[in-house]
Amino acid sequence: MVREVIDGCLAHQRSDGRFHDVLDGPATFVETNLAQMLAYTIYRGVAAGWLDPGYRSRADALRRAAHGQVDALGLVQGVCGAPDFGHAGTATEGQASFLLMEAAHRDR
Fold this sequence. Notes:
Oligomer: single chain
Number of helices: 4
Number of strands: 4
Structural class: mainly alpha
Strand order of the largest sheet: 1-2
Distance between the termini: 21 Å
Helix content: 40-55%
């Protein structure tokens, strides 16, 4: 089931490695957090053995896209922005997803 969600999301990935806020809504803003969450899930799934290792290269590309959104202060930009999450910006959830992604990458 998780693989179906991953594949469904990856089908909507933009050329810059990120996604629209509404996956199939190109009129919605581009955001970073889904790339981080998918990379995390893929790394953990491959490490646990329930996801094919061929997905690892996709996780690496998602991770690179997220790293491209980190500013000089270390904040991930372009996540659904607080307080209403209706635009791209920064939010603690986006920073947490980055840390989870990095931990999963380290543990792979």
